[in-house]
Write a structure and sequence with these properties.
The complex is a heterodimer of chains A (about 350) and B (about 240). With about 350 residues, chain A is an alpha+beta fold. Chain A has three domains: about 1-115, no CATH class; about 125-190, Helix Hairpins (Orthogonal Bundle), CATH 1.10.287; about 195-345, Heat Shock Protein 90 (2-Layer Sandwich). Chain A has eight helices and seven strands. A five-stranded mixed β-sheet of chain A has the order 2-4-5-7-6, covered by helices on one side. A two-stranded antiparallel ribbon of chain A has the order 1-3. Chain A is elongated, with a radius of gyration of 30 Å. The two termini of chain A are about 40 Å apart. The mean pLDDT of chain A is about 85. Chain B is an alpha/beta fold. Chain B is about 40% helix and about 25% strand. Chain B contains eight helices and 14 strands. In chain B, the strands form four sheets. Chain B has a five-stranded parallel β-sheet with strand order 3-2-4-5-6, sandwiched between helices. In chain B, β9 and β10 (about 150-155) form a beta hairpin. Classes of the chains: A alpha+beta (about 350), B alpha/beta (about 240). The interface of A and B includes residues 195, 198, 204, 207 and 348 of A.
């Protein structure tokens, strides 16, 4: 965390200097055009405000000082000294300082509020997701159980079966959601420790397919794995969960009776694996955002919306085992294709 | 003459005990319940039940201690443990300490009953290994060392055959990586060798090796060969 903060500070300093340098360049150009230097203060003021909006208050104050020095040194006579000849320029410089300070303060406050709003958005998305994804199945389970209890005698056999099936399916949905919440929490606490081993990819695919059997009844799954594919370096338990989440995702977003493809091939020292579906694909510009927590691809059909956790977990788990995942659309922009890249195990002697 | 299976349920949570009690009673089993390991141990000594279902979620490390105490006292009662989803290490530990099998919570009672029957059946047949084994398309004659799949004889290397034979001897039961490596490789091999042998075996005996139906993987734990299921009753001597 500390190194992250330091590198952010260095980046802010460098960025601020670049913005002030740009202001100097504009000033030099204006000087060539013989425009009186008193007007340049506005150029530097812009640089300070930009720094405040992009980097925050402290970089803005840094930009303010740098601008004052540069402005004085380069553009106010006597040139190339920090002395000031004209009294009116002292007044200009003073008010430049005041306006820059007040302005950067305001701009930094706006920036802070944006950060707070973003956190707030994530928190409310999480609460919406929690209350919706926990309550909906719970409501169905409680409702079905209480009907069975109260009206067992008047319910026909098929209605009883239907209520029992509701209890079963909704409890499984709840189970999956709670599993996702736990996985996400484990990731955020840094409690996910990958036990990476040389693993047969088709073996993990087999167990993921077996676990996802009930949610894949509405789709056809085609597996295309070369029989001589080398073993891959991964944690089989975490990877099974990654595949399960991707299959769950495909079953949710691709229409019924379409194909889901699982393909793998060796690519030099890595093995790539694709999970491809025949749904609408990923909306333009969202191929990275879909891996964010609680982000759900926009959908007019509320029923299809997932929990917004599955793909974030996929990425987190894969990172923990030094593999990666990206998303794109298939040929002709049709269907989503998730591509996982993982190291292949060294040959066994 | 035969009598119903006597089963002891060890779990802290009353809803879990209630679920198990009603499901087992529906099978005609006789059920006793214990909510901690010391009363479970006493019950074991006093009633001599046929099988134990143990919820590993007992407070502290109680569940593991109970398994150890039972095995140290040379009691052979089959033990099926209930464990949680993300606890592969706990499952392996319980199995290495002498538990016979496990189911992951939440579980279907069908699955639990199948595990119990397999564990009990193995305990009954432990003295004599069966010479003929048959499941789905697979037929094995362990005396003549002939294995056929859909009526066609399949050839194995000696090590592949040893591995298959071990799986058959424990059909229906989960076998940990460590156990298999010890039995087939004399404890010298690595899990990745085992994975390659399993892949080869699947390519020889499974209809679709990508969706195995016979040799099932228990991720992070080991392997299980599918077995036929059926009611178990205890003979009265």
């Amino acid at each position: 965390m500390k190194t992250q903060a330091t590198s952010r500070g260095v980046r802010a300093c460098a960025g601020t200097l670049a913005v002030v340098a740009a202001a100097v360049a504009v000033g030099l150009a204006l000087q060539q055009a013989r425009i009186p230097p008193a007007n340049f203060s506005l150029v530097f003021l812009t640089a300070v405000l930009v720094s405040a909006i992009v980097y925050g208050l402290w970089p803005a104050l840094f930009a303010c000082v740098a601008s004052l020095l540069a402005y004085n040194f380069l553009f106010l006579p006597p040139l190339y000294t920090l002395a000031i000849e004209d009294r009116s320029n002292i007044v200009t410089l003073f008010f430049f300082g005041v306006v820059a300070l007040v302005g950067s303060n305001l701009a930094a406050r706006v920036r802070r509020q944006n950060v707070i709003a973003e956190t707030e958005r994530l928190r409310s998305a999480m609460l919406t997701s929690l209350s919706h994804d926990l309550r909906t199945p719970l409501a169905s389970i409680l409702g079905a159980a209480s009907s069975l209890r109260a009206h067992r005698r008047s319910l026909t056999g098929p209605s009883q079966d239907e209520l029992l099936a509701t209890i079963h399916e909704e409890a499984e949905r709840l189970h999956r959601f709670i599993g996702n919440l736990l996985d996400m929490t484990r990731l955020e606490c840094g409690a996910v420790v990958a036990k990476v081993e040389a693993v047969d990819l088709s073996d993990v695919i087999g167990t993921a397919l077996r676990r996802a059997e009930s949610i894949l009844r509405t789709h056809r799954v085609e597996v295309d794995i070369p029989p001589d594919l080398p073993l891959v370096e991964l944690d089989p338990v975490l990877f099974e969960q990654v595949l399960f989440n991707l299959l769950d995702n495909a079953a949710k977003y691709a229409p019924q009776n379409t194909d889901i493809w699982l393909r793998a091939r060796q690519d030099g020292r890595v093995v790539t694996m694709e999970v491809a579906d025949q749904g609408d694909g990923i909306p333009a510009g969202e191929s990275e955002r879909i891996f964010d927590r609680f982000h759900r691809a926009a959908s007019t059909d509320r029923k299809r919306a997932g929990t917004g956790l599955g793909l974030a977990i996929c990425r987190g788990f894969l990172r923990a085992m030094k593999s990666s995942i990206v998303a794109a659309n298939g040929e002709g922009g049709r269907g989503a294709v998730f591509t996982i890249t993982m190291p292949s195990a060294r040959d066994l002697a | 003459m035969s009598r119903p299976l006597r089963i002891v349920v060890v779990a802290v949570e009353p809803p879990i005990r209630r679920l198990l009690r009603t499901s087992f009673a529906a099978q005609g089993y006789e059920v006793s319940e214990a909510e901690d390991s010391s009363s479970a141990y006493r019950m074991l000594r006093a009633e001599d039940p046929d099988v134990m279902v143990l919820d590993l979620g007992l407070p502290g490390k109680d569940g593991f201690d109970l398994i150890r105490n039972i095995r140290e006292a040379a009691l052979t009662i089959p033990i099926v443990v209930l464990s949680s989803r993300t606890d592969e290490a706990g499952k392996v530990r319980a199995l290495d300490m002498g538990a016979d099998d496990y189911v992951t919570k939440p579980f279907g009672t069908d699955e639990l009953l199948a595990r119990i029957r397999v564990a009990v059946r193995h305990r009954l047949h432990q003295d004599g290994e069966r010479a003929l084994f048959e499941i789905d398309d697979l037929k094995a004659d362990l005396v003549r060392r002939i294995v056929t799949v859909r009526g066609v004889e399949v050839k194995f290397t000696p090590r592949e055959y040893d591995l298959l034979r071990l799986l058959i001897a424990h059909a229906g039961k989960v076998l940990t990586h460590k156990f298999i490596l010890r039995e087939v490789w004399g404890g010298e091999g690595e899990v990745q060798y085992l994975r390659i042998y399993i892949r080869t075996l699947r390519q020889k005996i499974e209809r679709d090796p990508e969706r195995p139906q016979l040799i099932l993987t228990e991720q992070g734990v080991g392997y299980r060969l599918k077995a036929t299921d059926g009611a178990v009753r205890m003979d009265t001597a």
